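INFO batch 0412 | record 1 of 1 | parsing
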Amino acid sequence: MDLGLNGKVAMVAASSQGLGFAIASVLAREGARVSIAARKRESIDAAAARISGDVLANVADVTQSASIEAWHRATVERFGGVDILVTNSGGPPAGAASGFDDAAWQSAFDLLLLSAVRMVRVVRPTMEARGGGSILMLTSLSVKNPIANLGLSNVVRASVAALVKTLADEFAARKIRVNQLVPGRIATERLSYLDETNAKKAGIPVEDQRKRSIATIPMGRYGDPEEFARAAAFLVSDAASYITGATLQVDGGAIRSI
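INFO prediction complete | emitting C-alpha coordinates
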Protein backbone atom coordinates (compact mmCIF):
# COMPACT_ATOMS: atom_id res chain seq x y z
CA MET A 1 0.00 0.00 0.00
CA ASP A 2 1.26 3.45 -0.92
CA LEU A 3 0.73 5.64 2.14
CA GLY A 4 1.15 8.82 0.12
CA LEU A 5 3.75 10.24 2.48
CA ASN A 6 6.41 11.03 -0.10
CA GLY A 7 7.25 14.73 0.12
CA LYS A 8 5.00 15.41 3.10
CA VAL A 9 6.46 17.53 5.90
CA ALA A 10 6.17 16.12 9.42
CA MET A 11 7.00 17.68 12.77
CA VAL A 12 7.61 14.99 15.40
CA ALA A 13 8.04 16.09 19.01
CA ALA A 14 10.25 14.43 21.61
CA SER A 15 11.93 12.39 18.89
CA SER A 16 15.50 11.86 20.06
CA GLN A 17 14.57 8.41 21.37
CA GLY A 18 11.67 6.08 22.11
CA LEU A 19 8.36 6.27 20.28
CA GLY A 20 9.02 9.69 18.78
CA PHE A 21 12.28 8.56 17.23
CA ALA A 22 10.68 5.40 15.86
CA ILE A 23 7.88 7.40 14.23
CA ALA A 24 10.29 9.92 12.69
CA SER A 25 12.40 7.08 11.30
CA VAL A 26 9.46 5.30 9.68
CA LEU A 27 8.06 8.52 8.22
CA ALA A 28 11.45 9.36 6.72
CA ARG A 29 11.70 5.90 5.16
CA GLU A 30 8.28 6.46 3.62
CA GLY A 31 9.60 9.59 1.93
CA ALA A 32 8.41 12.29 4.32
CA ARG A 33 10.61 15.26 5.17
CA VAL A 34 10.94 15.14 8.93
CA SER A 35 11.56 17.89 11.47
CA ILE A 36 12.52 16.33 14.79
CA ALA A 37 12.94 18.02 18.14
CA ALA A 38 14.17 17.41 21.69
CA ARG A 39 15.53 19.53 24.50
CA LYS A 40 19.20 18.59 24.14
CA ARG A 41 21.26 19.43 21.05
CA GLU A 42 23.57 16.46 21.42
CA SER A 43 20.76 13.91 21.61
CA ILE A 44 18.68 15.31 18.74
CA ASP A 45 21.72 15.59 16.45
CA ALA A 46 22.59 11.98 17.25
CA ALA A 47 19.04 10.94 16.42
CA ALA A 48 19.11 12.81 13.11
CA ALA A 49 22.32 11.01 12.16
CA ARG A 50 20.55 7.68 12.62
CA ILE A 51 17.58 8.56 10.40
CA SER A 52 17.85 7.89 6.69
CA GLY A 53 16.16 10.68 4.76
CA ASP A 54 15.57 14.42 4.70
CA VAL A 55 15.76 15.40 8.38
CA LEU A 56 16.00 18.68 10.27
CA ALA A 57 17.16 18.50 13.89
CA ASN A 58 15.87 21.14 16.31
CA VAL A 59 16.31 21.96 19.96
CA ALA A 60 12.85 22.54 21.43
CA ASP A 61 11.19 22.35 24.82
CA VAL A 62 7.49 21.60 24.23
CA THR A 63 6.54 23.16 27.57
CA GLN A 64 7.63 26.57 26.23
CA SER A 65 5.57 28.45 23.63
CA ALA A 66 8.53 30.41 22.28
CA SER A 67 10.49 27.20 21.79
CA ILE A 68 7.64 25.57 19.85
CA GLU A 69 7.28 28.67 17.70
CA ALA A 70 11.00 28.67 16.89
CA TRP A 71 10.84 24.99 15.92
CA HIS A 72 7.86 25.61 13.67
CA ARG A 73 9.53 28.62 12.08
CA ALA A 74 12.70 26.64 11.33
CA THR A 75 10.61 23.84 9.81
CA VAL A 76 8.71 26.18 7.50
CA GLU A 77 11.91 27.94 6.46
CA ARG A 78 13.52 24.60 5.56
CA PHE A 79 10.59 22.68 4.08
CA GLY A 80 8.01 25.31 3.12
CA GLY A 81 5.18 24.20 5.42
CA VAL A 82 3.81 21.46 7.64
CA ASP A 83 1.45 18.62 6.71
CA ILE A 84 1.78 16.34 9.75
CA LEU A 85 2.19 17.02 13.46
CA VAL A 86 2.93 14.31 16.02
CA THR A 87 2.52 15.59 19.57
CA ASN A 88 4.62 13.75 22.11
CA SER A 89 6.64 14.35 25.26
CA GLY A 90 8.35 12.57 28.08
CA GLY A 91 6.22 11.21 30.90
CA PRO A 92 5.72 12.65 34.39
CA PRO A 93 7.11 10.95 37.49
CA ALA A 94 5.54 7.73 38.71
CA GLY A 95 3.59 7.77 41.98
CA ALA A 96 0.12 7.76 43.50
CA ALA A 97 -2.19 10.62 42.53
CA SER A 98 -2.69 11.53 46.20
CA GLY A 99 1.05 11.92 46.74
CA PHE A 100 1.81 14.89 44.48
CA ASP A 101 1.75 18.59 45.31
CA ASP A 102 0.38 21.42 43.18
CA ALA A 103 3.71 21.99 41.48
CA ALA A 104 3.87 18.39 40.26
CA TRP A 105 0.33 18.56 38.90
CA GLN A 106 1.08 21.84 37.12
CA SER A 107 4.25 20.38 35.63
CA ALA A 108 2.37 17.32 34.35
CA PHE A 109 -0.34 19.56 32.87
CA ASP A 110 2.26 21.66 31.07
CA LEU A 111 4.16 18.62 29.82
CA LEU A 112 1.31 16.44 28.57
CA LEU A 113 -1.71 18.61 27.80
CA LEU A 114 -0.70 22.24 27.38
CA SER A 115 2.25 21.23 25.17
CA ALA A 116 -0.17 19.58 22.73
CA VAL A 117 -2.48 22.59 22.78
CA ARG A 118 0.44 24.91 22.04
CA MET A 119 1.84 22.77 19.22
CA VAL A 120 -1.55 22.60 17.52
CA ARG A 121 -2.12 26.33 17.93
CA VAL A 122 1.16 27.10 16.18
CA VAL A 123 0.91 24.57 13.36
CA ARG A 124 -2.79 24.76 12.42
CA PRO A 125 -2.59 27.93 10.26
CA THR A 126 0.26 26.44 8.25
CA MET A 127 -1.70 23.24 7.65
CA GLU A 128 -4.77 25.20 6.59
CA ALA A 129 -2.69 27.19 4.12
CA ARG A 130 -1.59 23.90 2.51
CA GLY A 131 -5.15 22.62 2.22
CA GLY A 132 -5.26 20.43 5.31
CA GLY A 133 -3.16 18.02 7.30
CA SER A 134 -3.01 15.39 9.99
CA ILE A 135 -2.39 15.65 13.73
CA LEU A 136 -1.55 12.59 15.79
CA MET A 137 -1.41 12.70 19.58
CA LEU A 138 0.43 9.99 21.48
CA THR A 139 -1.11 9.09 24.82
CA SER A 140 -1.07 5.87 26.87
CA LEU A 141 -3.20 2.81 27.59
CA SER A 142 -3.99 4.64 30.84
CA VAL A 143 -6.66 6.60 28.90
CA LYS A 144 -8.57 3.29 28.79
CA ASN A 145 -7.34 1.55 31.95
CA PRO A 146 -5.72 3.67 34.71
CA ILE A 147 -2.30 2.27 35.58
CA ALA A 148 -1.28 1.72 39.19
CA ASN A 149 1.38 4.15 40.45
CA LEU A 150 0.96 6.50 37.46
CA GLY A 151 -1.48 8.98 38.97
CA LEU A 152 -0.30 12.08 37.09
CA SER A 153 -0.22 10.35 33.74
CA ASN A 154 -3.61 8.68 34.22
CA VAL A 155 -5.41 11.94 34.88
CA VAL A 156 -3.71 14.33 32.47
CA ARG A 157 -3.46 11.96 29.50
CA ALA A 158 -7.21 11.41 29.72
CA SER A 159 -7.53 15.14 29.06
CA VAL A 160 -5.38 14.74 25.94
CA ALA A 161 -7.80 12.06 24.72
CA ALA A 162 -10.66 14.52 25.21
CA LEU A 163 -8.67 17.15 23.32
CA VAL A 164 -8.34 14.79 20.35
CA LYS A 165 -12.11 14.32 20.09
CA THR A 166 -12.75 18.03 20.53
CA LEU A 167 -10.25 19.13 17.88
CA ALA A 168 -11.39 16.43 15.45
CA ASP A 169 -14.84 18.05 15.47
CA GLU A 170 -13.48 21.58 15.23
CA PHE A 171 -10.97 20.88 12.45
CA ALA A 172 -12.84 18.46 10.16
CA ALA A 173 -14.23 21.23 7.98
CA ARG A 174 -10.70 22.58 7.62
CA LYS A 175 -9.54 19.20 6.25
CA ILE A 176 -7.32 18.58 9.26
CA ARG A 177 -7.65 15.14 10.82
CA VAL A 178 -6.90 14.58 14.51
CA ASN A 179 -6.37 11.10 15.96
CA GLN A 180 -4.97 9.43 19.04
CA LEU A 181 -2.46 6.58 19.11
CA VAL A 182 -2.36 4.56 22.31
CA PRO A 183 0.80 2.60 23.12
CA GLY A 184 0.60 -0.38 25.40
CA ARG A 185 3.83 -1.72 26.82
CA ILE A 186 6.32 -0.85 24.09
CA ALA A 187 9.99 -1.61 24.75
CA THR A 188 11.38 1.91 25.18
CA GLU A 189 13.52 3.72 27.74
CA ARG A 190 10.33 4.94 29.45
CA LEU A 191 9.08 1.38 29.92
CA SER A 192 12.42 0.34 31.40
CA TYR A 193 12.11 3.20 33.90
CA LEU A 194 8.59 2.11 34.85
CA ASP A 195 9.61 -1.52 35.24
CA GLU A 196 12.48 -0.50 37.49
CA THR A 197 10.26 1.82 39.55
CA ASN A 198 7.54 -0.80 40.00
CA ALA A 199 10.08 -3.51 40.81
CA LYS A 200 11.57 -1.34 43.54
CA LYS A 201 8.12 -0.58 44.95
CA ALA A 202 7.21 -4.29 44.99
CA GLY A 203 10.60 -5.34 46.37
CA ILE A 204 11.27 -7.77 43.53
CA PRO A 205 13.91 -8.08 40.78
CA VAL A 206 13.27 -6.08 37.62
CA GLU A 207 13.09 -9.26 35.53
CA ASP A 208 10.29 -10.57 37.76
CA GLN A 209 8.43 -7.30 37.29
CA ARG A 210 8.77 -7.63 33.52
CA LYS A 211 7.37 -11.16 33.69
CA ARG A 212 4.41 -9.86 35.69
CA SER A 213 3.75 -7.18 33.10
CA ILE A 214 4.09 -9.51 30.14
CA ALA A 215 1.68 -11.95 31.77
CA THR A 216 -1.07 -9.31 31.38
CA ILE A 217 -0.53 -9.04 27.60
CA PRO A 218 -2.40 -11.62 25.47
CA MET A 219 0.34 -11.62 22.84
CA GLY A 220 2.85 -12.49 25.55
CA ARG A 221 5.52 -9.88 24.86
CA TYR A 222 6.34 -6.19 24.85
CA GLY A 223 5.80 -4.35 21.60
CA ASP A 224 8.60 -3.12 19.38
CA PRO A 225 8.80 0.65 18.72
CA GLU A 226 8.82 -0.11 14.98
CA GLU A 227 5.41 -1.79 15.28
CA PHE A 228 4.01 1.29 16.97
CA ALA A 229 5.60 3.61 14.43
CA ARG A 230 4.09 1.77 11.47
CA ALA A 231 0.64 2.30 12.97
CA ALA A 232 1.43 5.99 13.37
CA ALA A 233 2.55 6.27 9.74
CA PHE A 234 -0.77 4.80 8.62
CA LEU A 235 -2.88 7.17 10.73
CA VAL A 236 -1.14 10.32 9.49
CA SER A 237 -1.14 9.16 5.87
CA ASP A 238 -3.58 9.55 2.98
CA ALA A 239 -4.44 5.87 3.44
CA ALA A 240 -6.38 6.97 6.54
CA SER A 241 -8.07 9.91 4.84
CA TYR A 242 -11.53 9.18 6.30
CA ILE A 243 -10.33 8.58 9.87
CA THR A 244 -10.54 11.39 12.40
CA GLY A 245 -11.34 11.52 16.10
CA ALA A 246 -10.28 7.89 16.36
CA THR A 247 -8.27 5.98 18.94
CA LEU A 248 -5.98 3.20 17.74
CA GLN A 249 -4.52 0.87 20.36
CA VAL A 250 -1.12 -0.73 19.76
CA ASP A 251 -0.99 -2.90 22.85
CA GLY A 252 -0.87 -6.59 22.02
CA GLY A 253 -4.43 -6.95 23.32
CA ALA A 254 -3.68 -5.60 26.80
CA ILE A 255 -6.68 -3.25 26.92
CA ARG A 256 -9.74 -5.35 27.71
CA SER A 257 -12.44 -2.66 27.43
CA ILE A 258 -14.79 -2.67 24.44
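INFO post-check: The radius of gyration is 18 Å.
INFO record closed
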